[in-house]
Specification:
The chain is an all-alpha fold. The model has no long low-confidence stretch (mean pLDDT 89).
Length: 104
C-alpha cells in the first residue's frame, strides 16, 4: 500500500497515467481555489453563493490534507537511509512541505 501511495505522490521520477491524473487534478483544484477566493471578494456573489463557497472550501481542505498526510506517510521512501522521524521532518520543513501545509 505504501509503495502505491509513494508512486502516486512521491518523487519517484516515474510518470504514470495515475500520477499525471492526480497532478492535473491538484493543479486544477489549486487554480479553482484561486478563482474561488477572488470571487468571494465580490459581495453580491459571496452573499448569494456563500454555502457553495463553504462546501468547496471544505472539499479542498480535505483533499489537500489527504495529500499532505500521504506525503508524510511516504516520506521515508524519499529518504530511505534516514530515520523515520528525520525523513518526516525533512518533508515537513522542505519547500514543498511548507507550501502544502500553508495551503491547508
Amino acid at each position: 500500500m505504501k509503495k502505491i501511495i509513494y508512486e502516486l505522490f512521491g518523487r519517484t521520477g516515474k510518470e504514470t497515467a495515475a500520477r499525471k491524473a492526480i497532478d492535473f487534478f491538484l493543479m486544477i483544484l489549486i487554480l479553482a481555489n484561486v478563482i474561488a477566493v477572488s470571487l468571494e471578494t465580490v459581495q453580491s456573489l459571496y452573499t448569494h453563493y456563500a454555502h457553495i463557497f463553504r462546501i468547496f472550501e471544505v472539499f479542498s481542505v480535505a483533499i489537500f490534507s489527504i495529500e499532505y498526510v500521504c506525503r508524510i506517510y511516504t516520506s521515508n521512501s524519499t529518504h530511505p537511509s534516514k530515520h523515520r522521524i528525520t525523513s518526516v521532518l525533512l518533508y515537513i520543513f522542505s519547500w514543498t512541505g511548507l507550501i502544502d501545509l500553508i495551503s491547508i
